[in-house]
Design brief:
The complex is a heterodimer of chains A (261) and B (260).
Chain A: H1 2-29, H2 37-48, H3 60-93, H4 95-110, H5 113-124, H6 128-152, H7 156-164, H8 169-203, H9 212-221, H10 225-253, H11 255-260
Helix pairs in contact in A: 2-10, 3-4, 3-6, 3-8, 3-9, 5-6, 6-8, 7-8, 8-10, 9-10
Chain B: E1 2-11, E2 18-28, E3 33-37, H1 44-51, E4 59-64, E5 67-68, E6 76-79, H2 93-98, H3 108-121, H4 137-150, E7 155-159, H5 167-184, E8 187-191, H6 195-201, E9 204-208, E10 215-220, H7 231-234, H8 236-249
Parallel strand pairs in B: 3-8, 3-9, 6-7, 7-8
Antiparallel strand pairs in B: 1-2, 1-4, 4-5, 9-10
Helix pairs in contact in B: 3-4, 4-5, 6-8
The chains are: A mainly alpha (261), B alpha/beta (260).
Chain lengths: 261, 260
Amino acid sequence: MILSLLGRLGRLWIVPVALAVWELAAREARAVYFPPPSGIALHVYELWFSGPPARLFLTDDAVAHILPSLGRLLLGWSAACLLGVVAGVALGRSARLSQYLSPLIHFARSLPPPVLLPVFLVLVGVGTPLQLAGIVFGVVWPVLINSIDGARYIDRQYLDTAQVFGLSRRERLTRVILPAAAPKIFAGLRLSVALALIMMIISELLGSTEGVGYRLLIAQSQLDILTMWAATLLLGVLGILFNAAFLAVERRVLGWHRAAL
Amino acid sequence: MLEIHNLTHTYGTGPGAHEALGGVDLKVAEGELVCIVGPSGCGKSTLLRSIAGLLRPTGGEILFQGDPVERTPDNLAVVFQDYSRSLFPWMSVADNVALPLRRKGMDGRQRRQAALDALEQVDLAGAGGKYPWELSGGMQQRASIARAIAYRPTLMLMDEPFGSVDAQTREDLEDLVLRVRAKHGMTILLITHDIDESVYVGDRVIVLSKAPAKVVSDLRVQLPGPRDQITTREHPGFVQLRAEVGRLVRGRQGQAASTG
């Protein structure tokens, strides 16, 4: 308990030190390409978070680029998770279905998603549908594979118990199979959170006119170094926030799993 | 209420096949507590899984209340040996007990009440809100007995239910089974490898041979009731019977003394 608290403090303690070293090194270097963190933070504030209070301090640039990206990220990630869990549990519980489809699944998941973006562009057109397709395709595989695995290897005795006590199909699914598969399913979901952020950016590099990825692309082409760094910082912070939120949910849902081990 | 005719079961086919049951015949009357003993690996669990409808035997017939067992019959509950994998760790103890009651047409409040009643009967009145893994092994097995009681089965199957608890807890649980039977009058089929336990708890002791299992002997236990862990176990009838069952289990029928 105390050790883990110290460990956590220890990790936090390294953050200001790293920032200070970065700041000093950047000031010393005086290079255009390597701005100090204070400058980047100030730019993030001016570019995105210095808007009117009525709009939660978001600037026009933030509303135009950050919000669409986040919206697509959440929508794409949710759709991929739903699809992955539903299809995964169905495949995990049906040996025949899984035999038929597993060659296709293993082929499709081996394709690097960025390679398929031009294909999606032809299929669904530019803009939000393209980005959503990119995110869903990039994110769905770990969820699907882990859900199949979780639903397939369920302790025989859980299923025997469900049968002996005459649980309905629905009760068997919601009260036995899904909870028993939940640890594996969540392992897949956790991988997908990080992937979703990556796919959000990559999918905006093609056929897009808005979004953080697009903003990054424009900044690069204009040699707007400070905005490039600002977008990088924003993505890092978003990644940490999503992961923390996900872990909080996981702790609630899988509390029994941790404690029962 | 339960009739088994010439039950056979073979796992696998060809030269690697394992013949677990070699023609088991058994009749259990309403309200009886029948213990089945036999050497380990003799097919006791195969027999129980067949009765519970968890396994389709390769031959023979099982009639439960006159009907052939195709899948798990209603009014049948099982207490498994491995309680830690039979209670669901993601549900509270009370939810575990109440889960099977929905199909009995009870609403949420009735299910909750039935679960709490059953937990009280097994001396777990305060544990309903806990998770199974917060309880000791003996308490977990009590909880799974409570689940079976709340389900109000006419036949309760118990598969080596006390095989993984310590001796003291085992005696408490044996007495619990006797109390439950006395209170609810349900028929109980208890599988065990513990000879003393079979004689102490049972009205009848069925001895199975090594695999492929057959019924070697069907002994009626005639001991003065109510059973008591100390006095029953020192009763001459108990001592004699456990010796006889012991010889039968070890396959030396020739040396067994005959009993009435």
